Amino acid sequence: MKLSFRPLAAVVFAACAALVGCGPGSNSPEAVAEKVFKGLMVEQNFEAVKPLLSGDEVIRRVESLQKDLKEMQEGLSQLPPEEQKEFQAEFQKMKEACANASVVEKTLGDSEATITYRVEGQGTSSLHLVKVDGVWKVDRIDEKNL
Predict the structure, then answer these.
(1) Nearest to 21 by CA among 116, 92, 94
(2) With CB atoms 3.0 to 4.6 Å apart as the test, which of 67, 106, 107, 140 could cross-link to 114 if both were Cys?
(3) How many angstroms from the chain centroid is the CA of residue 111?
């Protein structure tokens, strides 16, 4: 059984390619993006991320990511040890690349914001945020070159 790393990496990257640029307040668009990143990529705490999302589509994507990661973990245990090591090394490389993500563009408004991140070797991801009852939430994620 051979697990495919690339599709999962794209999903993970798209959902959380946001580490740098912690804003001045805990409810700034930058801070919310960072919380989403840490919750998904570092801590894999999907339940903590869900309140930071707005819109059915982005919520479904995160739930799908959660399911994919669970299936990956189950499948990984069935691989020969050398393939497990290889897959884990690739996943670690992707996490490290996300940890070094850089903001390449920001558009900040009163009620909407877009922050575009670049992760070396992975492409770009734009996180669209909206203010819902005074709180910034990720509403949509657009990916390029993943």
Answers:
(1) 116
(2) 107
(3) 22
H/E element, 139: strand 135-144
How many residues can be counted in the chain? Answer: 146
Strands 123-132 and 135-144: antiparallel
The contacts of residue 42 (CB under 8 Å, 6+ apart) are 95, 99
50-62 pLDDT, tens digit per residue, is 899 998 888 888 8
Please list, residue by residue across 121-145, b when 16 or more beta carbons sit within 10 angstroms of its beta carbon and e when fewer do: ebbbbbbbbbbeeeebbbbbbebee
pTM of the model: 0.70
Please give the DSSP secondary-structure letter assigned to residue 59: H
The enclosing domain of 25 has a CATH number of 3.10.450
In whole angstroms, give the CA distance from residue 129 to residue 121: 25
Pull the structure tokens for residue 83: 């393939």
Tally of structural domains, the chain: 1
The residue among 61 and 101 whose pLDDT is bigger is 61
